[in-house]
Design a protein that fits this description.
The chain has 84 residues and is α+β, with helices and mostly antiparallel strands. It has a domain at 4-54. Helices cover 33% and strands 13% of the residues. It contains three helices and four strands, in the order ββαααββ. The chain has helices at 17-23, 28-37, 43-53; strands at 4-6, 15-16, 56-58, 65-67. It has a two-stranded antiparallel ribbon with strand order 1-2. The longest helix has 11 residues, at 43-53. It is elongated, with a radius of gyration of 14 Å. The chain starts with a strand and ends in a 17-residue tail after the last strand. The relative contact order is 0.14. The structure holds zinc ion. Zinc ion is lined by residues 59, 61-62, 64, 74, 76-77, 79.
Length: 84
């Protein structure tokens, strides 16, 4: 968990799996997706980009982070994800 798993270019920060989980509300599936999609940027930068592009959002009901582009209902509580 504490082993370094990612170092962004242009940055000396070393990220561990724990850091990824912390960014992602401790949701492993989101952390994995974030890790897979990283190219060179820092995880928090990509995470902010996702937010800006509306790719992720928090469920209004259970507050879990969801990859909203790929789903119509919250997989945790079943709430319909409304288009904004
Ligand atoms: Zn939910």
């Amino acid at each position: 968990m504490d082993a370094p798993c990612y170092v962004p270019e242009l940055d000396d920060t070393v990220y561990t799996k724990k850091d990824f989980l912390a960014l992602c509300n401790n949701q492993e599936e989101i952390a994995e997706e974030l890790f897979e999609q990283l190219d060179w940027q820092s995880p928090s930068t990509l995470f902010n980009e996702w937010e800006d592009m509306g790719e992720i959002g928090a469920c209004e009901e259970c507050r879990k982070i969801l990859l909203v582009f790929s789903m119509e209902k919250c997989p945790y509580c079943g709430k319909d994800i409304a288009e904004e």
